[in-house]
Amino acid sequence: MPVVIHLFLAAFQxxxxxLPCAAIILGSGLAALSGVVDGALFVSxxxxxxxxxxxxxxxxxxxxxxxxxxxxFNANKPGSNIRMAVRQQMLKLMLGCYFVLVMGLTLLCxxxxxxxVMGYALIAIIAVLMLMxxxxxxxxxxxxxxxxxTSSIVCQFLLVGFTPALVSYHLHTSGITxxxxxFAACCGLxxxxxxxxxxxxxxxxxxxxxxxDNLPAAMAKNIIWQKSIIISVVVLTGGFIxxxxxxxxxxxxxxxxxxxxxxxxxxxHLPEEDIAESQKTKVAIxxxxxxxxxxxxxxx
Length: 300
Known about the structure:
Elements: H1 3-11, H2 18-33, H3 39-68, H4 80-113, H5 117-137, H6 150-173, H7 178-207, H8 217-243, H9 257-269, H10 273-299
């Protein structure tokens, strides 16, 4: 099997697909409430979203393999030629996926709504953010106990939740309303849980063993941030449902709240590396369930 296929399959990590796909479902669901349903467009957006996440996963794998944990390069060392070949193949695959993504979104915008300034602007935002992340991950390594930068928070908010939801709605309806933007903002805010969960897992790995009665200050702060995000999203989503005059059944998203809280509470009382790793998956699934329940309740 070609190396490119191996690299692509390694980057195909379903756990990372839940949150960005939830944003597409949110945008498409709100568009359906407005009377616009397009199954082909919806499926196309989901496929491009998965491709975007695979591209980011490739960049993450590249960063770990060739930047953060890479030994000093020695051209005379056995296997160095193979290593360089894999590195080049990985970079080419990343760029290929990136260009397919941008071209795919551009074509969808053109054929679904005939093209629009707003649509092309949203696609440009996604393209620029993706390029920034790819550039950073292919040039800068991770450091132990590093805090989450403001740029990482902004990119996660915009790229995983806010912008995909807006793009999905806009490509269905050719418009954007303030209420849709507010729900998209909640989606972006909830997506930050994945970022903090990833950092918490790394903090546990570095500081193991850890006592639940004496958590490091950085970990305690991380847990507080996650709790604050969950509370904020629930309150804001409930408030926006009321302001938007949506069906009260939209509030069944609250059924996902125990799962969201459990992911944080479990780590707080059992700060172990294997548990923290499993909680990353549960955070993504709970976030996905949150918005799926919201859309289902809205349609009932």
